Amino acid sequence: MTDAPPADFHVDEALAARLVAAQHPDLAGQVRLVANGWDNAIFRLGDRYAVRMPRREVAVGLMWNEQRWLPELAPRLRVPVPAPVRHGRPAPELGYDVPWSIVPWFAGESGLAFDVETRGVAVNSLAAFVADLGAVPAPADAPANAYRGVPIANRDAHVRARLAGGRIPDAARLLAVWERALAASPWSGPRVWLHGDLHPANLVLGPSGALAAVVDFGDMTAGDPATDLATAWLTFDARARRVFRAELEAVRGVDEATWDRARGWALVIASAVVEQQGPSGVFGRVASYVLEQVLRD
Questions:
Q1: Are 217 and 186 in contact (CB under 8 A)?
Q2: In total, how many domains does the chain have?
Q3: Which of 79, 149, 245, 247 sits CB 3.0–4.6 Å from 127 for a disulfide?
Q4: How confident is the model at residue 2 (pLDDT cuts 50, 70, 90)?
Q5: Predicted pLDDT of residue 264
Q6: Alpha-carbon distance 49 to 105, whole Å?
Q7: What is d(CA 233, CA 11) in angstroms, rounded to the nearest whole number?
Q8: Cα distance between the two ends of the chain
Q9: Is residue 21 part of a domain?
Q10: How far apart are the C-alpha atoms of 54 and 42, rounded to whole Å?
Q11: DSSP 3-state assignment of 282?
């Protein structure tokens, strides 16, 4: 991933293989790097598994969260998720003093590898995932996240600064979208489980565009469901978005105020990417498309 920040920890295939051999020798097999992500590196382990290793300090606590909560959440979901098969312990003796996991390997490609029309094939399954995840109120000790699931007004100063900074196109029109999101009634229901980062890069799709898995729960938290509903703009075009909205309104009773906040969350996320990375690059192009989409509805 060319947009990823520099690593805090050196991770490579040799280290991943040594960790598996030392702690879970019964699963040892060929190891090869398949993704060097924003916070974690992913190595394929044999045919059935993957090794997920933090490459940045910020991801260490997120890895503990995944190990703690994904095994509990996975049985509730109709879409596969990477609940750890084995927990990897910090291994200072190998020069890697942070947790890591062995997770299932999901055949398919990142949603970024597909055009937006093909991603629309996944719309019903992704709606089911969002409905399932938010169906049960989250416990009081669900992971906290200062940037997701919080009242959208918490992001107001940041969004206004971005829109005034000159790097975001159509800033005046986007400001009107933002004002509408702020004016929407705040979430008054229970805190619900959230993936927290539900964009195309965290979807594994089959050749047809069908949803094979939802991955990367590093930002998982609880709060306003509008955060995850933002995937309507982050992932889909207008046609698929109508289907997504209809599905969630039928099974979860999502109201107009929540959709307004969701559109605001899509603006929060996409404007941050365009400001930091510009409109080029894999994520920059997706974020630019998202900003166009929030202006359409």
A1: no
A2: 2
A3: 247
A4: very low
A5: 98
A6: 4
A7: 34
A8: 31
A9: yes
A10: 9
A11: helix
